[in-house]
Amino acid sequence: MIDSILHPFMKYPLVTAFLVVGLITWVAMVVGKKGTNNRIHGSAIAIVCGLILAYVGGKTTGGKHGIADVSFFSGFALMGGGMFRDFAIIATAYGVRMEELKKAGLPGVIALCTSLVIATVVGAAASYAFGYTDPVSMATIGGGAATFIVGPVTGAALGASSEVIALSVAAGVVKSIAVMILTPFLAKIAGLTNPSAAAVYGGLMGSTSGVAAGLAATDPKLVPYGALTATFYTGFGCLVVPSLGYMILNALFG
Amino acid sequence: MVIYGVALLSACMLVGTILGQLLGLAVGINANIGGVGIAMLILVLLSQKLLDKEMLSKAAESGVQFWSAMYIPIVVAMAARQNVVAAFDAGALAFVAGLGAVFTGFLLIRPIAALAKNGDETETAVEEGSK
Question: Which key words tag this protein in UniProt (chain A) (predicted)?
Fold first, then answer.
């Protein structure tokens, strides 16, 4: 009996995910409106609910993909995966005005370069402070402080230990989750209120998922500008951190 | 037809990814550099052209707008499949490195955005001067 009720949910995992996300969003919107008097946007609450589900899923299954490792919720892997994420991000660019984009271009590029330097320095300094003082580990964890993809790419290129690579991934995941949660609260104070600032923010944070969720919960109109610069960050980081970043760290600490 | 909009979006994504991949190849890494960003630029330019020529029907537009509207739900699903446990259990080093980068980032939004505004003004001044 229970099996025949549950069967359709397992058979159509993506449809199940649509339903569950719809329910989460509905509850989050009601809570946001009535519970917090619109001070916290419903999307922010929905995203935090998602993160809590991910924690519960990870704890119960021991897997790496949050709630998607629970078979009932396996559709989350597809719905929240890179393909749909990128497809929807690109769609948000529809209706963006070219003039706004041009204005955002230069600050975005400056932010991108500044941020990669800063992330590498912060990561490398943290690495040094915790006793990983060789330039390979410092560059790898510095890469992780950029994004959780730059870290392992750097580590693999330089031959870092698997422990250090795991730490670099964790640093990147902490960063992306912190960006998701903190953005709606810090947006006003940090001046994140217009397209140029959003492009700068995207270049500074770099984590596509963090920026995507952070802006969605702050002001959906800003999403395309932030996403545009953020999507260049990881690729640029994979290029610069293992080469230039490592060479500089090696010269200073090698 | 709604599918025209969806197909337009798909074409932008695929062409953007190919160009991103080629850009990666050109600088010697096997990764896609800014493919999504390139795709967004193509969509902005192409949809503007098509709208000007009135070649994009309301139905076709809704094919793109649907996916744009699905963005936040997709982000909720994405949040639910992150490795949150690993982030919590990784210990102090990961937190210091990750959070340090985030906070410095927030501090820099205003100065860099302001820097760019000044740049804009000098640019327009130069343009006006050349006229």
Answer: Membrane, Transmembrane, Transmembrane helix
**What distance in Å separates residue A252's CA from the closest CA in chain B?**
19
Q: What is the pLDDT of residues A51-72, one digit of tens each?
A: 889 889 989 998 888 899 998 9
Confidence (pLDDT) at A76: 93
Asked if B38 and B62 sit in the same domain, the reply is: yes
pLDDT at A120: 92
Three-point CA angle A95, A191, A188, nearest 5°:
95
The A residues from 45 to 84 touching B (CB cutoff 8 Å) are: 46-51, 53-55, 57-59, 64-68, 73, 76-77, 79-81, 84
Domain span at B94: 84-131
A47, A249, B123 from A61: Cα distances, Å: 21, 39, 56
In terms of domains, do B66 and B98 share one?
no
Domain map (residue ranges) of chain A? 2-80, 98-253
Give this complex's ipTM.
0.82
Query: Which residues, numbered 190 to 229 in chain A, qualify as contacts with chain B under a Cβ-Cβ cut-off of 8 Å?
Result: 190-192, 194, 196-197, 200-201, 204-205, 208-209, 212-213, 216, 220, 223-224, 227-229
* Count of other CB atoms within 10 angstroms of residue B121: 10
Could you tell me if B8 and B69 lie in one domain?
yes
B48 and B13 within one domain? yes
pLDDT for res B121: 46
